[in-house]
């Protein structure tokens, strides 16, 4: 069976994967999906810096061994015909490529606490 795949009209975006060593846990023990976890910045030298709460992590950008794509499944209104040589079925599903992942940000060192310096005026 053939699976129709379509590249987004606006062009597929390039995303990066975020790789952390260890676990991220919420203080309230709630699920972390679709939650804000921190700020990602890049230094002038291109080094990624991730700030989560009162902790800072320094990472590096790496090329992935094998790039992969992010796709979403779309139910189509009209059925698409598959060539007769493959099957007589009609398809009503289309996969749309949202992004291509070619690079990853690796944060493998332990986070360092951010300590605000205070000035004592005595």
TrEMBL record:
The keyword Protein biosynthesis does not apply. GO terms for biological process: DNA replication; mitotic sister chromatid cohesion. The keyword Mitochondrion does not apply. Its main location: nucleus. It comes from the Eukaryota. Signal peptide: none annotated. One of its GO terms (molecular function) is DNA binding. One of its GO terms (cellular component) is Ctf18 RFC-like complex. Keywords: Cell cycle, DNA replication, DNA-binding, Nucleus. It is found in: Nucleus. Belongs to the CTF8 family. This is Chromosome transmission fidelity protein 8 homolog. It comes from Petrolisthes manimaculis.
